[in-house]
Write a structure and sequence with these properties.
alpha+beta; seven-stranded antiparallel β-sheet; globular
């Protein structure tokens, strides 16, 4: 029995501390006045009585009641029941002494105010309703002046009412005011009473919010409620608390938090609290608190709070149950009621059942909700009792919970919610309270015991679901109200409005003596009349469903039967010493060990062999067993949720091998590196499990039923073994032995909990001696097990090599080898020598282990109540054990190193190139798999080639790995991976994970990444010393970054002599005096003080890099500028070139010029007809417009330019020297190519220098500053005028190559038939280099197909075409050129009124027909005076700078060659897209395409002036020439192109490729690789147009960075001249041309050139010998002279150079080594008779398919070569044989190719798209501001049905058929599938075709669209037709098909208005104006969108006096238009005209 209440308190307003109406509470009286011993008085209660503060009120408030909760220091809760009412206070307001006015006060003070007074009951019981009644009676007696003493009421409450404990009878009482009350204790005290709190919470917040709070409370988050009602706060907090039953909330719990204690919410610990809503605004500062608004029903979760998801399927069942309740009264089983919404499921019923007469009460819903959550916990914790571990039974049970075992069996290791619940304090309390197997049970124990069976029944019969919930709800209701007969209570209440009486006396002061007297009497009376209580029924707690029964054992057996059989066979082979048989199936066993069942089976099998006395192993047996143990531990987690590590622990301390006499090595020395041994929780759980087994064995003999099993399953330990560890481990395994299937008799085994329950049941009956004996036995058992585990922990934690310090308490990887350590016998002596440093390290190791073990011992022994004496003895024992074990391991380590090494694969020698020398011989390594799938045997298929074991070698040219796969099934193959050392871009140490087939992997490896898309991830073998690893890294860095290029393999590997004396700096500045003199003179000349003496010295004119860059408009901090690059070792920008240094001037040596002209780049000038500088007659001819100038022959104008340049013939060299300063790096514009037909020129230069300050710094030394500036500008203008005059387009027209007039820029915007039949020009071969590669082409006979009238379906088949021009109604021969500045009227007439149309007109009007287009940077075009350059147009273009290319290349390498497997979030294609590499390739193709169109179509010259003129400029110029000139698509022509544009014009290969140490910091910039990628894209689209194949491009891409050839070295031609190889007479290509050795071109070293080998000579030699570079599809007579490739991303592909590799022989680009490796491989592959195998296995991820399976042409040529060899005939060159092949039929000229209609459409479509891209570049360059935005509008997709062949522009698949609808962009015509819509690029980059419906005036008219092909635009007759749309008045009249006035009705409910309508045949529009004179179009209707036009009648709202037959309707895709003509005839005319158009 206990008191109903502990204290009664009267608290009032403290008027003494009043401050402007606010004060504090003051305790007026408290009873009893002295504290109870068992319940001390709680301080600061007055704060909780008025949580928002004690203030006066101007109005009398009604009485309020709420319950607050306080928690004392012992975590006991005290409930404060508070009843508050108001008392009147008379106040005379006066000004305060400190001067505060009334305005500053919180309350307005009146003469009569009301102060609060509180009556408080403090109790430890939660009978809230009873407290409310008692306080209400006291208040009623006071306010109604009842004839009772208040003292008697208070005394009776405190002393006379005694409450029985839970399970007791109902108590009926009265406190003396005529009341009758009843108090019913609950049946079970562990089940909380809720009444209706949880149902009320669900009503306020809803299901999802309550589940969120439920999850937050269980996972230890902070929760704060706020509401206007204190009672609601208490109820909500109580509801969340009750929903967690059977768990208890153990953190801060304050349902009502006073405002002064608000800072408590900043505590770091979790809490559940509530505050008044007036404080809600302050919650914004609480960043990690979940705030719940009870009044608004919302839950706010901060961003930093991450709530786990509730586990399935428990949460799904809970949600379902919260939504439905079954009604049994309805015969059909329908869900008709819900917990929160009773009508949801019946809302859709046609005939809903009648609603119940009496809806369920809120309390009934409350119990059902609680039943749902109790079932949730029962299902969540199913099997938890199986994971309880009994440690002690007597004198009090101590039971722990094996969390890892529970999570492993339930499969919830990754369930964050469950893990956090099990780690919380609430679950710890749950285990402590409910773990006892012999106690009183409650509702949860019953539900837990039956939940599995109930769920099984419910799965079969869903109707039982709610039935079980209702049954449980009834039990909960019975627990709260066990008495079925309710007692009618009588509680007096105050009269209505009594609180508002005017003359109400204050609450009286109670008589203290009277109250205490009544209190004492009541206590004495209760002591005499004690109510007998029924004791709680204690019983054995039901175990419930075992956790092992939750796993589907049948499925596990079915899936693992075969694996377990293989596992058992392998272990039997090992212990039978059949090592070879075991190794065969060993890989399968390792794969099988990924299964949990297999790992556990392995431990059982090994334990069986231990019992068979097979613990002593041979060396090979020991290695295999250790491999199995390591694999098990590696596949398991550190949590050991499957118990594998705990099972391995006794095995590792049992298996051993003998190293020598008296020294044995246990298996634990080889399995120490796993993280599980560092996990303290694992050691505790394993210790507790073993203690439980010992406790079980201690009490098992007392039970008769367990005797037989105990005798059968026990086994004797080996008495001969000296280590006690074996005996203990065998005893520990006694429990697992009972589970073996080998025992024929299985006795029923009593579990540990059953034994503990039985012991607890009999405990009271035992004698004291027996009790003391049991306590002593248990304590000794725990103590002995603690000693045992202390030894085990020392064994597993002390590393084998104790000299090495442990990192993170784990041994070094070299010390954990499970194999014998070989090749280090010499180190064994040094280990014996112990130094002071070693001893200190050993002490550190020992100290860390001692600390770890001591911490473990303290924890488990104190929890298990081991005596302090035993704990102290353990502490004293541990250091000695550690020291002894360290001493033992030293001998073991020493002897293990002396064992003979395990036989390892032979190190294979790599095949070397001529001149290649080994720097570091093979170091044994493992080649590990990286992120690529090839070679892994996974999704790609094929054998498992990686990991591979072999050796890595470093040569002076390559890093080579050669070895064999570790997988025994693939070990016969050879794996080779190599890359040139010069391509190494990054080297780093990486952490390694477990890899199959490798037993002992070090923790760190080396990752080498190369810029040729190669990656090596290697792990050095244990025999490789750290010094060798460091030497490998240092030498690789040294050979990667030589000081000069002459130290690279191209020279050092070819037996070269020293470079010329010119490069020696000591000869240039032989003395300090000479150096100082030159420096002073250089500075003086720079400043203009000293004059230049021309005969003696020449200046190199480029200015300092810093000054030049700082003035550049595009320079920025992050750009790849010249200022931050290291200076070249052979060239300084400010160096002075002495004539003595450089030799005599070339101008005086014609032979040098003649020799220089033999270079391939200069030969191209002769081919194009630019003349020969050595020919004096040619220079004097006046008819030649250009000449080859020698002004830069001594590199005095620009060092980075070639010696010979093509310039206008009439422009003097002196002027060139003057105006070169206007370009960066002095790279002035020079001619590089001339169109053979249009004679348009392609020029290249660097970007322009800004004027102003730059001009002052770069003055002419011969003149003043201003004069030099003006002079340079004038010379520049003259130079441009010379270029313009030399362009035929500037003075006359030319005959176009296409059938339409394309002589102006407008032709790019028009559409028509363009080149229906392809031209087949005669391609000039190399035998006629001087005649030019392109002949003037005669126009073929115009032959056009007569096409049908355009239909709607045909129009949409090619929607990306423009609709700007129509040839149908145009007069023939109209070839007058029209410019864009005539476009403005059409712009205004097209519906795009004023603002944007004018802007477009203004921006584009500069795009006139000009002779020269200058494509440059945006920032440099601003300062150019366009008027100074007539007939020139400057177009700023977008391009990617070098820094962008660098960043993109890094991302591309990570995508193509990832270092780790890619995840779903970062897929391969996504990474490629993020790299933006294809966007850069697209940009180059678009710029080159624009150049092609301007040169070929427009006939204008083009000048490319981007950056410094050697990166992007070179890319664009090279690609343009490749597209324009078929000569460059031959092998010889491509060589010429690269030599001319990339080498001669100074692309900085050394700098961009980081060839020397001085350039390493700049970063690798693959500009040339990007160019080759573009060529690859073009080659892929036009495979018949190239003489060379894709391998040719990949070969160059590989070797331009390999440093094998000298070709791509040095930064410019000047450096190559200084190196001496540019003028070298000896051509290495002529050496041994006829040598055709089978080794693939191996040449003796002494025969090589001393100046290095040229890649072109190498290619030429192999091209003569083999077809390796030949494209057999090459058809020079069928190809187009000009190529126009698609540049949209959907047509670009990822180059296979980035993705493929050949593991069989390494990169195929090393032709010699590849052939040698293939030859060796084929020689080894023979059958039993020694004959070569006829069958060949080709694997795509291993072999090079193109080599192993050559195409038919190459195969036939090889067979012919073989036949000639076998027959002894003279072997003909393959080229000779190929050229002699005859055509299939007759003469080639007679073959007529019939072109299909689709072929014509595709060709025209390609040209139209190409021109569209060109126009965009031009127009975007001129448009500014708003107009430019029209190029980046979003797509406007509409559904469309394609009835003609169309293709998705995204995926390329077909869009065709009546049912195959797609999406069509109405602006740009983009087509795609609906499924592709989300992947389409977001910006509509084309010109808009359809204006925005919301603002038609804000769009560009259709006149600015690009050309388009439509069927009606094809001419119907066969003659040539020329069409040019000129939007002038005349042409507008010609294009107007019909016009006139019509009435048009507006939108809905709008009237009719007369408009002037024009039917435009050109633009396919019906436009309308306000009047005939109006020029501004008000709108238009697209005729393409018209579906039908027909007459209509009976039009509503028609104008008066209108003809009924004059109405007609025009229906489009979007809306219906109604028109009214003057009469019916006019209306019919309009209908006919429109019909003819659609």
């Amino acid at each position: 029995m206990s008191r109903l209440a502990d204290y009664f308190i009267v608290i009032g307003y403290d008027h003494d501390k009043d401050r402007n109406g606010s004060s504090e509470g003051r305790i007026i009286q408290r009873f009893p006045e002295t504290d109870w011993e068992s319940c001390p008085f709680t301080q600061s209660i007055e704060l909780f009585c008025r949580p928002i503060g004690w203030t006066l009120s101007a109005q009398r408030q009604p009485p309020e009641f709420f319950v607050a909760v306080l928690t004392d220091i012992d975590a006991d809760r005290h409930y404060l029941s508070v009843l508050t009412f108001s008392e009147s206070v008379a106040i005379s307001p006066t000004k305060s002494d400190d001067g505060d006015s009334e305005e500053d006060s919180a309350v307005t003070i009146h003469s009569l105010m009301y102060s609060p007074k509180c009556l408080v009951l403090v109790s430890r019981l939660d009978y809230f309703e009873t407290f409310k009644n008692c306080l209400g009676i006291i208040y009623t007696a006071y306010v109604d002046k009842l004839d009772v003493q208040l003292e008697a009421l208070v005394g009776n409450i405190l002393g006379c009412v005694q409450v029985p404990p839970p399970g007791g009878p109902q108590v009926r009482f009265s406190i003396g005011a005529g009341d009758r009350q009843a108090l019913q204790p609950p049946v079970s005290g562990t089940v909380p009473s809720s009444h209706s709190a949880t149902a009320l919470l669900f009503q306020q917040l809803g299901i999802q919010n309550v589940l969120t709070l439920f999850c937050a409370a269980l996972t230890d988050h902070k929760i704060l409620f706020h509401s206007q009602s204190y009672s609601r706060l208490t109820d909500a907090c109580q509801a969340i608390n009750i929903l967690q039953y059977p768990l208890k909330y153990s953190y801060v719990y304050v349902p009502i938090l006073p405002a002064p204690l608000y800072e408590v919410l900043n505590t770091p610990t979790p809490f559940i609290a509530g505050v008044h809503s007036s404080l809600a605004d302050d919650t914004a500062d609480l960043v990690d608190v979940i705030v719940v608004d009870l009044d608004g029903g919302s839950v706010h979760i901060p961003e930093c709070v991450n709530l786990p998801t509730l586990p399935e399927p428990m949460v799904s069942r809970a949600k379902k149950a919260l939504t439905m309740i079954d009604i049994s009264s309805i015969s059909t089983c329908t869900w008709s009621e819900m917990v929160m919404n009773a009508d949801l499921l019946m809302a859709d019923y046609a005939f809903p059942p009648p609603s119940p007469k009496k809806p369920p009460s809120l309390e009934q819903k409350d119990k059902e909700i609680r039943a749902i959550f109790i079932r949730f916990f029962a299902e969540l914790l199913t099997g938890y009792r199986s994971c309880l571990t009994v440690i002690r039974i007597h004198p009090e049970p101590f039971i722990t919970f094996h969390k890892a075992n529970f999570l492993g069996h339930r499969g919830m290791v990754d369930a964050e919610f469950v893990v956090r619940v099990l780690e919380g304090m609430g679950f710890g309390t749950f285990v402590a309270e409910r773990g006892n197997p012999y106690r009183a049970c409650d509702i949860f124990d019953e539900v837990y015991a039956n939940i599995h069976d109930q769920l099984t029944v419910e799965s079969a019969d869903p109707d039982k679901f709610m039935e079980h919930i209702k049954d449980l709800a009834k039990q909960l209701h019975t627990n709260e109200s066990p008495n079925p007969q309710p007692y009618v209570q009588k509680v007096p209440k105050p009269t209505e409005g009594a609180y508002n009486r005017i003359h109400q006396t204050p609450f009286p002061i109670l008589d203290s003596e009277n109250v205490h007297k009544i209190l004492r009497e009541g206590i004495e009376k209760q002591n005499i009349n004690k109510i007998p209580l029924r004791p709680h029924q204690v019983r054995i707690v039901p175990m419930g469903t075992p956790i092992t029964a939750l796993v589907d054992r049948q499925r596990i057996v079915d899936n693992n039967a075969r694996r377990l059989e293989v596992l058992r066979n392998c272990i039997n082979f090992v212990f039978d010493n059949k090592i070879s048989d075991a190794r065969i199936i060993f890989p399968a066993v390792l794969r099988a060990l990924k299964s949990r069942v297999a790992r556990l089976a392995l431990t059982q099998e090994l334990s069986y062999h231990i019992r068979s006395n097979r613990a002593v192993l041979e060396h090979q047996q020991f290695d295999l067993v250790v491999k199995l143990l390591n694999c098990c531990l590696q596949n398991d987690s550190s949590m050991d949720e499957n118990g594998v590590a705990a099972a391995i622990l006794p095995l590792a301390t049992t298996f051993y091998r003998r190293l020598c006499t008296g020294i044995i090595q246990f298996a634990y020395t080889c399995v120490q590196e796993h993280a599980v041994w560092q996990n303290m929780q694992f050691w505790e759980a394993a210790f507790y499990l073993d203690v439980q087994k010992q406790i079980q064995q201690l009490y098992a003999p007392h039970f008769e039923e367990n005797h037989v099993g105990d005798k059968r399953d026990s086994f004797q330990s080996s008495p001969t073994h000296k280590n006690s560890e074996l005996n203990v481990s065998k005893n520990c395994n006694g429990q697992s032995v009972t589970q073996e299937k080998r025992s024929s008799y299985r006795a029923r085994e009593m579990g540990a909990l059953e034994i503990a329950a039985e012991q607890l049941r009999t405990w009271p009956t035992l004698s004291e001696e027996k009790k003391a004996e049991m306590i002593s036995n248990e304590e000794s058992t725990v103590y002995s097990q603690a000693i045992h585990y202390a030894n085990r922990m020392v064994y597993m934690r002390v590393p084998l090599e104790t000299q090495k310090t442990m990192k993170a308490l784990s041994p070094d990887w070299e010390s954990t080898s499970n194999s014998n350590i070989a090749s280090s016998l010499a180190d064994s002596e040094s280990i014996d020598a112990e130094s002071g440093y070693d001893e200190m390290e050993i002490c550190d190791v020992g100290a860390s282990v001692i600390k770890f073990v001591t911490r473990f011992v303290d924890k488990v022994c104190n929890d298990s109540r081991v005596t302090q004496e035993h704990i102290k003895s353990l502490h004293q024992m541990i250091p000695g054990v550690v020291a002894m074990h360290i001493e033992t391991l030293e001998a073991v380590n020493r002897e293990s190193k002396r064992l003979p090494p395990i036989q390892k694969p032979k190190i294979l020698k790599p095949t070397l190139l001529p001149g290649e020398e080994v720097v570091i011989d093979g170091l044994r390594v493992y080649l590990l798999p990286d992120g690529r799938e090839e070679g892994l045997g996974g999704n790609m298929g094929g054998p498992t080639l990686l990991p591979a074991e072999g050796a890595i070698s470093l040569t002076n040219y390559r890093i080579i790995f050669k070895g064999t796969p570790c997988d025994p099934l693939a070990c016969e193959q050879i794996v080779i991976r190599s890359f040139p050392i010069s391509t190494l871009t990054k080297e780093k140490l990486v952490k390694l994970q477990y890899t199959p087939h490798i037993d002992q992997l070090p923790k760190e490896g080396l990752q080498l990444r190369a810029c040729i898309f190669q990656l090596m991830k290697i792990a050095f073998d244990e025999e490789v010393s750290p010094d060798d690893v460091e030497a490998f890294r240092k030498l690789s860095t040294k050979y990667r970054s030589p000081t000069t290029v002459f130290m690279t393999f191209a020279f050092a590997g070819q037996a070269v002599t020293q470079p010329s004396a010119m490069l020696k700096p000591i000869e240039k500045n032989a003395s300090l005096k000479n150096f100082a003199k030159k420096t002073i003179m250089r500075t003086a000349r720079k400043a203009g003080i000293a004059k230049q003496k021309a005969p003696k010295r020449k200046y190199v004119l480029p200015t300092p890099p810093m000054s030049r860059r700082s003035m550049s408009p595009r320079s920025s901090a992050g750009s790849d500028s010249e200022s931050d690059r290291p200076a070249s070792e052979a060239l300084d920008d400010l160096s002075i070139i002495d004539e003595g240094e450089f030799g005599r001037s070339w101008l005086s040596d014609p032979k040098v010029i003649e020799k220089l002209m033999e270079r391939p780049g200069y030969q191209d000038y002769i081919r194009q007809g630019f003349g020969d500088p050595s020919d004096g007659t040619a220079r004097g001819k006046s008819t030649e417009q250009f000449r080859v100038s020698t002004i830069n022959s001594n590199f005095s104008v620009s060092k980075s330019y070639p010696a010979l340049l093509v310039v206008p013939a009439n422009f003097p060299d002196d002027s060139i020297r003057k105006f070169a300063r206007t370009h960066r790096q002095y790279r002035f514009p020079v001619v590089t190519w001339r169109h053979p037909r249009t004679k348009a020129l392609l020029l290249r230069a660097s970007g322009f220098h800004g004027r102003g300050l730059m001009g002052m710094l770069k003055s002419d030394p011969t003149t003043g500053t201003s004069t030099g500036e003006i002079s340079a500008t004038l010379h520049q203008e003259r130079y441009f005028s010379c270029i313009v005059s030399a362009t035929p387009n500037s003075t006359k027209s030319y005959k176009p190559s296409y059938s339409d007039s394309l002589t102006s820029l407008d032709s790019l915007m028009l559409s028509g038939v363009q080149d229906i039949l392809p031209e087949t020009p005669e391609v000039v071969r190399r035998s006629h280099p001087a005649t030019g590669s392109l002949r003037n082409i005669n126009n073929p006979k115009s032959s056009f197909l007569t096409l049908p009238r355009r239909t709607r379906t045909l129009r949409n088949a090619w929607p990306t075409f423009s609709r700007i021009g129509s040839i149908r109604e145009k007069p023939r021969g109209n070839s007058n050129s029209a410019t864009l500045d005539h476009l403005s009227p059409a712009l205004h007439q097209n519906g795009g009124v004023h603002d944007r149309a004018d802007l477009l007109h203004t921006s584009v009007q500069g795009l006139k027909r000009v002779a020269l287009y200058v494509l440059g940077e945006k920032t440099q075009m601003k300062g150019i005076k366009v008027e100074s350059f007539p007939k020139c147009d400057f177009i700023p273009v977008d391009f990617f700078e070098v820094r962008h290319v660098k960043a993109s290349f890094k991302k591309l390498m990570r995508a193509c060659v990832p270092s780790a497997p890619l995840t779903q979030e970062t897929g391969f294609l996504k990474l490629v897209e993020e790299s933006e590499w294809l966007l850069q390739v697209q940009n180059i193709m678009q710029l080159a395409g624009a150049t092609v169109d301007l040169l070929d179509v427009q006939g204008s010259s083009v000048m490319i002036c981007l950056e410094d003129g050697w990166d992007c400029t070179t890319q664009v110029v090279s690609v343009s020439q490749l597209l324009l000139d078929p000569y460059y698509r031959t092998i010889e022509g491509f060589k010429c192109l690269v030599e001319k544009e990339w080498l001669s014009f100074g692309h900085r290969f050394t700098h961009r490729s980081n060839q020397t140490v001085a350039n390493q910091a700049s970063g690798f910039a693959p500009m040339f690789l990007q160019f080759l990628d573009v060529v690859h894209q073009i080659h892929h689209q036009f495979p018949l147009s190239f003489e060379f194949n894709q391998f040719f491009l990949r070969f160059i891409a590989y070797h331009y960075v390999s440093n094998r050839f000298r070709t791509f070295m040095m930064d410019n031609e000047y450096e190559r001249v200084e190196a001496g190889w540019l003028m070298d007479d000896r051509r290495s290509s002529k050496i041994n041309h006829d040598q055709s050795d089978l080794d693939g071109g191996f040449v003796p070293r002494y025969q090589q050139s001393s100046q290095g080998l040229s890649i072109w000579d190498y290619i030429e030699k192999h091209h003569r010998k083999s077809t390796v570079f030949m494209n057999f599809l090459y058809s020079p007579t069928d190809q187009d002279s000009v190529l126009r490739p698609y540049s949209n991303l959907s047509n670009l592909r990822i180059w296979d150079f980035y993705l493929t590799e050949d593991l069989a022989h390494g990169p195929a680009y090393e032709i010699e080594t590849t052939n040698k490796e293939i030859q060796i491989s084929e020689e080894e592959k023979t059958d039993s008779s020694g004959q070569p195998l006829l069958r060949k296995m080709v694997n795509g991820c291993y072999d090079n398919v193109s080599i192993q399976l050559p195409n038919v042409f190459r195969q036939m040529l090889l067979e012919l070569h073989k036949l000639e060899t076998d027959l002894g005939h003279f072997q003909q060159k393959w080229k000779t044989v190929w050229d002699r092949l005859e055509l299939p039929t007759g003469q080639r000229e007679t073959i007529h190719r019939n072109f299909s209609f689709n072929t014509q459409i595709v060709k025209s479509h390609g040209r139209s798209i190409h021109k569209r891209s060109t126009l965009e570049i031009l127009v975007k360059g001129k448009m500014l501001g708003e107009a430019a935005k029209m190029f980046s509008q979003p797509h406007r997709f509409e559904k469309y049905t394609y009835t003609t062949p169309a293709y998705c522009d995204y995926c390329g698949q077909v869009l065709w058929g009546l049912l195959k609808t797609g999406m069509h962009c109405t602006d740009c015509g983009y087509n795609c599938h609906e499924k592709c819509l989300s992947h389409v690029p977001k910006n509509c980059t084309k010109l808009k075709l359809v204006p925005d419906s919301s603002n038609s005036s804000a769009n560009v008219s259709r006149s600015s669209d690009t050309s388009t092909l439509k069927s009606e635009e094809l001419p119907v007759d066969t003659g040539p037709t020329y069409a040019t749309y000129t939007p002038t008045t005349t042409n507008t009249e010609q294009s107007c098909l019909h016009k006139g006035y019509l009435y048009k009705r507006g939108a809905l409910l709008k009237g009719w208005k007369q408009r002037w309508f024009v039917l435009d045949a050109t633009k396919h529009q019906l436009r309308y104006y306000d009047s005939e004179e109006d020029t501004n179009c008000k709108g238009f209707i697209e005729l393409f969108d018209v579906q039908s036009v027909q007459p209509i009648r009976n039009v509503q709202g028609a104008p008066k006096k209108s003809d009924e037959n004059a109405f007609f309707e025009l229906k489009t895709n979007r809306r219906i238009y109604n028109f009214l003509a003057a009469d019916s005839k006019t209306a019919q005319t309009w209908i006919d005209r429109i019909h003819s158009f659609i």
